[in-house]
Write a structure and sequence with these properties.
Helix content: over 70%
Number of domains: 1
Shape: elongated
Largest sheet: none
Strand content: under 5%
Distance between the termini: 20 Å
Structural class: mainly alpha
Number of strands: 0
Order of helices and strands: HHHHHH
Length: 159
Amino acid sequence: MSDYILLILGIIFMIIGIIGCLVPVLPGPPLSFLGLIFLHLTRFGQFTTPTLIILGAIAVIVTVLDYIVPVWGTKKFGGSKYGTKGAMVGLIIGFFLGPLGIILGPLIGAFVGEMIFKDDMSYAFKAGFGSLLGFLTSIGLKLAASFVMTFYFIKELIS
């Protein structure tokens, strides 16, 4: 009975982990890794120690990069903290508007943030684009890590 409860928890955490890659307040890869741990504790999945260490390290590295990459993208294109925060707000609002909102939300948010900081449309667009590029790169890294963990979860479950 407890194996099935842990399996269900593992599946839930894998799903929340993937969702967490798109929602800034949820740490996607660590939640996906927790799903792997739940599966590992059942009779359905027995990962090797090196596999768990590598996937855990990936979750940690990607989580750290999640904070560095957007700032790097913004700074690379000359943006400020206003652009970064605006992009984050735009992403949160855009999440409720569907896939196009997730893509355009950070760009518009960063643009508005930079316009508040410095009333220069060219500067704001360039910095907004950098912020968008950083956020999308960060989301891509998180999704890649969570999908790899989901792959291992499913592979272990069906083998």
